[in-house]
Design goal:
The complex is a heterotrimer.
Chain A lengths: L3 H12 L8 H21 L1 H19 L4 H10 L4 H25 L19 H17 L3 H10 L2 H19 L1 H7 L10 H4 L1 H25 L7
Helix pairs in contact in A: 2-3, 3-7, 4-5, 5-11, 7-8
Chain B lengths: L2 E6 L6 H12 L5 E6 L4 H11 L3 E8 L2 E7 L3
Chain C lengths: L1 H8 L4 H19 L6 H14 L27 H19 L11 H20 L5 H5 L7 H24 L2
Helix pairs in contact in C: 3-4
The chains are: A mainly alpha, B alpha+beta, C mainly alpha.
Chain lengths: 232, 75, 172
């Protein structure tokens, strides 16, 4: 319960409120439109209609829970809070189990096949990964949003994030255009490392979950220990 | 009862939090910081942070997508 | 009415969001065969735009390697990344409207504009080097048991740290 001072301020403020518009009606109109689009997609392409449905739920969840990958990296550094990072670690544990099932079923338990035939995001790792990650990390903090956050905030009405999206598109075009250079310099010589190829599938699932649980406890400890902010 | 006000309209994350932080440092115990913001993340982000610091905190929606966050400095 | 308030009006805890997103990503992966990705879609939109502007975009090296080419029957605007990107925006819009918290938020000053544009630019460039963004190379890559997801996550922290320093210096 908040203190009496705050209660009083709140009460005063609520009395002098401008009348709020109710936007639910616009929301219902939007739902109607997305359902129409869904039906249109369903008629033409089942996979698209399914992706449309999942994407809507993802967007809804991102907005409702204010889920922000940028904050998960930024807040531990800036204010010592790891609550979003912990939520992401839990998400990783769940999706590790789910992805493991999918990969196991689609490969039939035989993992000694070409990496390209294993479903999932498995790509070369090397110096280019490090460069890309650092660039992305800097960019998301100064722009105030990552890829998912940018999309979600456009939905919330941030005009700034539309600018970020324009920057994003130009950036991917430049990156795609220079890809040949980077490929010949770095990517071509980098290995694609699918962890189960090295230590076996059951062990990698087990180890990954153990590491994630350990990270969760580290994050929890860090949160409790750090109550101060980064020195400006 | 003294109170301070900061305007964080149109500011993107994490500027509202940092502004509140800066302001709170200059305030005396018992004063209330009133923060106006239209960033939906602030009402979880700032509130959570202020609670962790041991301050009293609450917020109220003043208009569509605009909130006032009240933080009473406790220490 | 109370359920409405709890579910629609108030923000959800982060943990609930994380669990739902993980489950949705698993469902998406199991049905479409590809986990959640975003930035490749941005590149496709960019390619589509420069095509509309009359530039030649056919012989890009990028689309000849690492399975980057469009699937059969897809174009730069008609593909599953477009569907996914637009639906995420629409979902967030609906969530904001149902909670009556939608508001057009204007750009406050030139500095904000500049940092937004530059931030987006380097994020886009970085995402091409590392085969994806915070979703494709991190949120979907670590559960895929690919080492690059872990490396990406660690170095994104380093980048975020540099970004924080810049933020304190120029934006506050």
């Amino acid at each position: 319960m908040a203190s009496s001072k705050i209660q009083e301020l709140k009460k005063q403020r609520q009395l002098s409120n401008k009348r709020k518009k109710n936007q639910v009606i616009y929301g219902v109109v939007c739902i109607f439109i997305v359902v129409l689009i869904y039906l249109f997609l369903l008629k033409n392409n089942f996979i698209y209609s399914f992706i449309w449905k999942i994407g809507l739920l993802i967007g809804f969840t991102l907005q409702k829970s204010r889920f922000c990958f940028t904050a998960s990296f930024r807040d531990p550094i800036m204010v010592g809070s790891t609550s979003i990072l912990k939520a992401i670690i839990i998400a990783f544990i769940i999706s590790t189990i789910g992805f493991a099932f999918i990969q196991y079923i689609s490969t039939g338990g035989n993992f000694n096949i070409r990496i390209e035939d294993i479903p999932g995001q498995i790509d070369p790792v090397g110096v280019h990964t490090i460069l890309g990650a650092i660039l992305f990390g800097v960019g998301m903090v100064i722009a105030g949003g990552c890829a998912s956050g940018t999309l979600m905030r456009i939905g919330e009405g941030f005009i700034l994030q539309m600018v970020v999206l324009c920057g994003f598109i130009i950036g991917t075009l430049l990156g795609g255009n220079h890809f040949e250079f980077w490929d010949k310099l770095l990517i071509r010589n980098s290995p694609t490392i699918y962890i189960p190829h090295y230590i076996g599938f059951p062990l990698s699932v087990f180890l990954q979950i153990v590491v994630l649980i350990a990270l969760y406890y580290v994050a929890d400890w860090y949160d409790k220990k750090n109550n101060i902010m980064m020195t400006m | 009862m003294s109170q301070q006000r900061i305007d964080c309209m149109y500011e993107a994350c994490p500027i509202p939090l940092l502004k509140a932080l800066k302001k709170l440092k200059t305030m005396k115990v018992g004063e209330v910081l009133i923060m106006e913001t239209d960033h939906s993340c602030s009402i979880t982000n700032v509130v959570e942070w202020a609670k962790k610091q041991g301050h009293e905190v609450d917020y109220v929606e003043i208009s569509d997508g605009e909130w006032e966050i009240y933080i009473e400095k406790k220490q | 009415m109370r359920l409405w308030k709890g579910l629609i009006k108030k923000p959800w805890p982060y943990l609930v969001g994380g669990i739902i997103l993980a489950v949705l990503n698993i469902i998406l992966f199991s049905v479409s065969g590809k986990p959640w990705r975003i930035t490749t879609g941005f590149l496709y939109w960019g390619m589509g735009i420069i095509e509309k502007l009359g530039f030649d975009n056919t012989n890009w090296y990028y689309f000849s390697v690492y399975g980057n080419q469009l699937n059969e029957g897809e174009t730069f605007f008609n593909n599953q990344y477009t569907i996914l990107g637009l639906s995420v925006i629409a979902g967030a819009l609906i969530a904001a409207l149902l909670a009556s918290e939608f508001k057009w938020k204007i750009i406050k000053n030139r500095r904000q504009l500049f940092f937004g544009l530059v931030g987006g630019l380097i994020m886009g460039y970085g995402s091409r080097l590392s085969f994806g963004c915070n979703i494709g190379s991190y949120f979907s890559a670590i559960p895929s048991f690919s080492l690059h997801g872990w490396v990406y996550g660690i170095f994104m922290f380093l980048g975020a740290w540099v970004g924080c320093k810049l933020l304190f210096k120029f934006l506050l």
